[in-house]
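Task 17 of the worksheet. Students: predict the tertiary structure of the chain below and write it out as structure tokens. Keep your answer in the requested format; marks are given for formatting as well as content.
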Amino acid sequence: MKYSERSDDNVDPFNFAEFGHLTLSKFIFGSGSGNSDPNTDFKLYCALKYAIMSGGVNHIDTSHTFRRHRSELVVGKVLHTLIEKYGLEREEVFINSK
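Model answer:
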């Protein structure tokens, strides 16, 4: 299933664009802002999980240099949760990492 097909009537279909064989959200979730601490990790986890589950965002920007290596760890935890508990397929999410 394509991620863009998971969204309900609350997500505008024009939110997505085709790039070759990829269907990506025009909105990109950036994971580089915030402090390098557990509280910010939790906030990032909740925000990213909600953004993906909303059906409106499937493009994540991260880097090993963001928040002293913590951002990629949080992104991984969110994806693990969504795949294991909610049936998201890894191929539905595009991760842009540097």
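Marker's comment: The first strand starts at residue 16 and ends at 19. The chain has a mean pLDDT of 92.
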